[in-house]
Structure formats: structure tokens, C-alpha cells
Specification:
Helix content is 57%, strand content 8%. With 377 residues, it is α+β, with helices and mostly antiparallel strands. The chain is globular and about 60 Å long.
Length: 377
């Protein structure tokens, strides 16, 4: 069962996403917990906008708190503008080199929000595919203030580059899955979603592709669910998914989506998180593809885990105060993931178990790569 400040948090969030009235009891005074919750879930700008637009709420919070909220909102909107400019710049550079990038998540999904500048900013994700992956590294390296070592290209699904203080991930795969069968199905869907029926958007006058609607709806969810299993996910990611489903509802082929969700063995998680969108976040049930209210009983359990852990699990102690020992840090990290799998077993047993083995395999790859890099030092 949600605590009082958590219920009010969702009321403010629904108001920001849908324009519905926020319901704040007259005796509510727990503004600090509300603030911390919105911050940990990466939706503070959305919640702050509702609070500062309501004269009754403004009268109940201090002038210092109001100024803090306004400053956060302004900083977020300025960063959003910088990200739009960088999307245009990096896409232009890649296009000039004959490389066609596809913008994933982030700024593309922000455009579906009622006020795009209020979506809390993250990094930029660009998909270029396997064939242009190495060339993309060479194209973007001159722009970089920092970039992954070239040996990083041998592992993982993306390399990281920092340009003008902003992070960009350049992907050769949109995602990978823990079994060969699932990964084969997913990569075929990804290849189609990155090349056929893509959705074009304009950033500072530069046209940039985003994924096809059916694949994008699945990809945004599967990426979010992976984070939920692995380390924790924030409400911002659910807002992203919800706004995509809402804005592109007339373009999403429900039967094609069903086939993909079922073939990837994600129908139960999909429908469970769909109930969360409907029950707590205000999405009309008729706008959620494959909606089934039978999973509403799991909503509070899933929501509490999200609220308790924070975006990317930042509220969990395992990510704080890391020591200097490489072996101990790796052991602590794996133990943390093992504990999470045990805790999630009652909700999504086979998905949690599958994710554990995927995490172990990826961790071993990274350990091998780290050991290999040590030999170069």
C-alpha cells in the first residue's frame, strides 16, 4: 500500500501529464519527502511545474523551496535545449560521413510530453548498427572532450562519448537478450524497426529518424523492464513509455505488437506495467495495447519497489561508498543483483532468473576485458 506522500506524488504527476486537478489534502505538510521522491524518480521538473502553477500549493511552501524548484526547472529546460542542439550536430556529422543514425529514447520521447522541456534530461542514444559502428567512433572522436578507449568497441552494445559536457551513447545494437532464441527474435525485430517505417523528427532544422512505432513501443518497455530487473528503474521511464503509447496510439499495430511481445515472452510483465500506467499514472485503459486488468493486484508491489529504489537504483546502498578493491566491488555488485533476483522471484520468476544469468555472463565479459586492458598498461 502506498504511503500518503506517494499517493500525492502520483496525483501531482497525473496533473502534469494529463492536466487533471491535483488532490492535496489541506493537512499535508510532508513536502520534503515529496521533493526527495520526485527527485529520486527523475520527474521533479514535472511535479514542480504543477506545484508552482497552483496558487493554493504555492501558498503552502516556503519562498526558498519555490526558488529551488524554479531553478531546477530552468536548468532542466536549458539542458534540454542543449541536448536538442547536440542531437542535430552529431546527426549532421554522421550523415555527412554517410552514416544514418537513429535516435533512441531520450529527446525523441521528450517530444511526446505536454511540455518537452520538463522531461528530466539524460544522455543521447544514437543507433548506427554494426557496419558503421567503428566509423562512427572515428567521426565523433574529434568532437569529444572524452571518449571510451577504442578497445571498448570489442565488447558491449555501445561506446560512450562526452561532447561539450553532454553524454552520448553510440549503439551497434539497440539491446541484447539473455538467450540465443530471444536474441535472434529481438535482433530481427530491431533490424526492421531501425530501417522500416521509422518516424522522422526535426531537431534544430536537422531531420533525424526515430524507431518505427511498433518496435519503439516494445523497445522502450523492454529496456525499462531490463533496468527494473537489473538495478531499478524510475518513474520517468514509465512516463516516457506512457507518452509514446498515448501520442502514437493511432500508429501502433496492436496485432504486430502482440506477436512481438508474446514471442519475446514478455506478455505478463507488459500487462503488469500496463496496469500500473492505468491505475496510478492516468493512462486511459483503451489506449494501452493488450490491456488486461487481472494484473492490477501486482501494481502496488511493483510500484513500491520502483519508489523505494529510485531511478537506476540510486537509493540502494550497494552503489555508494565503493572501495578501491576491484574484486570486492565486483563481488558486492553481483551479490546485490543476486539478492534482487531473489526478491523479484515472487513477481516475475523466470524473467528475474534469466536476467541473473545474463548479468553474470556480461560481468565475466567485462572482467576479461578489464584484465586484457591491464596487460596493455
Amino acid at each position: 500500500m502506498l504511503e500518503r506522500h506517494e499517493e500525492i506524488f502520483f496525483s501531482l504527476l497525473r496533473s502534469g501529464m494529463w492536466g487533471t486537478p491535483a488532490c492535496i489534502p489541506c493537512d499535508f505538510k510532508d513536502w520534503n519527502n515529496l521533493y526527495r521522491l520526485a527527485m529520486s524518480q527523475s520527474v521533479l521538473a514535472l511535479v514542480a511545474d504543477v506545484m508552482l502553477s497552483d496558487a493554493e500549493i504555492v501558498a503552502r511552501i516556503s519562498g526558498k523551496a519555490q526558488e529551488k524548484l524554479r531553478s531546477f526547472m530552468m536548468a532542466n529546460m536549458m539542458t534540454a535545449d542543449r541536448l536538442d542542439i547536440l542531437v542535430a550536430e552529431t546527426a549532421s556529422r554522421l550523415n555527412e560521413a554517410g552514416i544514418r543514425p537513429v535516435l533512441l529514447k531520450g529527446q525523441g520521447l521528450a517530444s511526446y510530453y505536454p511540455s518537452p522541456g520538463l522531461r528530466q534530461c539524460g544522455d543521447i542514444d544514437l543507433y548506427v548498427g554494426k557496419n558503421d559502428y567503428r566509423r562512427s567512433y572515428d567521426v565523433l572522436k574529434p568532437l569529444a572532450s572524452q571518449i571510451d578507449d577504442v578497445r571498448k568497441l570489442e565488447i558491449g552494445i555501445h561506446f560512450d562519448v562526452n561532447i561539450a559536457g553532454l553524454d552520448v551513447e553510440v549503439h551497434r545494437f539497440t539491446e541484447t537478450f539473455p538467450t540465443r532464441r530471444l536474441d535472434r527474435i529481438y535482433q530481427a525485430a530491431s533490424d526492421r524497426g531501425m530501417t522500416e517505417d521509422t518516424v522522422r523528427m526535426s531537431f534544430n532544422g536537422v531531420e533525424v529518424d526515430t524507431p518505427a512505432d511498433v518496435f519503439n513501443a516494445f523497445y522502450v518497455f523492454s529496456h525499462m523492464f531490463r533496468h527494473f530487473l537489473y538495478e531499478g528503474v524510475g518513474i520517468r521511464q514509465l512516463c516516457d513509455w506512457m507518452m509514446l503509447l498515448h501520442k502514437r496510439r493511432d500508429h501502433i499495430d496492436t496485432e504486430a505488437l502482440r506477436e512481438l511481445v508474446v514471442s519475446m515472452d514478455l506478455l505478463k510483465p507488459w500487462q503488469t506495467f500496463g496496469c500500473l500506467l492505468v491505475d496510478l499514472m492516468g493512462l486511459p485503459a483503451e489506449e494501452f495495447p493488450l490491456y488486461d486488468p487481472k494484473y492490477s493486484g501486482l501494481v502496488d508491489k511493483v510500484a513500491k519497489r520502483i519508489l523505494d529504489e529510485g531511478n537506476f537504483g540510486k537509493k540502494r546502498n550497494i552503489f555508494k561508498n565503493k572501495g578501491e578493491s576491484y574484486v570486492i566491488n565486483k563481488a558486492r555488485s553481483f551479490f546485490s543483483h543476486f539478492v534482487r533476483v531473489y526478491e523479484l522471484f515472487s513477481i516475475f520468476p523466470k524473467h528475474a532468473f534469466r536476467q541473473l544469468w545474463h548479468t553474470l555472463a556480461e560481468s565475466m565479459k567485462r572482467v576479461r576485458m578489464d584484465m586484457k586492458n591491464l596487460l596493455y598498461l
